[in-house]
Specification:
Helix content is 39%, strand content 18%. It is α/β, with parallel strands linked by helices. The chain folds into 2 domains: 133 residues, Alpha-Beta Barrel (TIM Barrel); 46 residues, no CATH class. The strands form 2 sheets. It has a 6-stranded parallel sheet with strand order 1-2-3-4-5-6, with helices on both faces. Helix 4 packs across helix 5. The protein is globular and about 50 Å long. The N and C termini lie far apart (49 Å).
């Protein structure tokens, strides 16, 4: 599947079922999601898991970093290509993304945006992946969830670039914010 056809598929069905354990796979297969991310599995069962998804007409992407028994070497992408019907791979590692593309797999580079330095690195470094997977997806929503369950007060840090970001974090339940942008220190 090309990245363009995956994009079109996601435009029609934008919610991806991300499966963290094998127990969740039947529910993901039964969902309205046209695409499933496998964030679990072992070298012994990843072929079977991907076959189950494909048998139900859904696209499946294997997160290489989370498959037990696979190393972060190029051969991991080769293993998926040769031993599964997966449409593509997900990884935080550039070498695996590069090798996946060489093998004709659709590739998804996962980035954790935990502060402004991580964001700068993402913007600066070249990426060969077909799609980017950015975490966290929504900071205010995540803060709100944590604030509702945590016993401790929250400090929101990272990616705060203007007054609106600060106000959103505070409105979401943060007690305070920590910013590296000097201009924000004087608001």
């Amino acid at each position: 599947m090309t990245d363009n056809s995956l994009t079109e598929l996601l435009l029609d069905a934008p919610i991806i079922a991300a499966v963290k354990s094998e127990d969740g796979l039947p529910k993901a297969i039964a969902s309205n999601s046209a695409v499933i991310f496998l964030l679990c599995g072992t070298v012994c069962n990843i072929g079977s898991l991907t076959e189950q998804v494909r048998a139900h007409g859904k696209q499946v992407f294997v997160h290489l970093d989370l498959v037990d028994g696979l190393a972060s070497r190029d051969i991991a992408a080769d293993f998926i290509r040769q031993n599964t019907p997966a449409n593509g791979i997900i990884s935080t590692r550039q070498n695996l993304i590069r090798r996946g593309r060489e093998l004709g797999l659709t590739t998804i580079q996962r980035y954790f945006v935990h502060d402004s330095r991580a964001l700068e690195n993402i913007l600066r470094q070249p990426c060969e992946a077909d799609l980017l997977d950015i975490l966290p997806g929504t900071i205010p929503k995540t803060l709100r969830r944590i604030a509702q369950s945590a016993r401790q007060p929250l400090i929101a840090s990272g990616l705060l670039s203007d007054k609106e970001d600060i106000m959103s974090a505070l409105a979401a339940g943060a007690l305070a914010v920590s910013a590296t942008t000097p201009e924000l220190w004087f608001l």
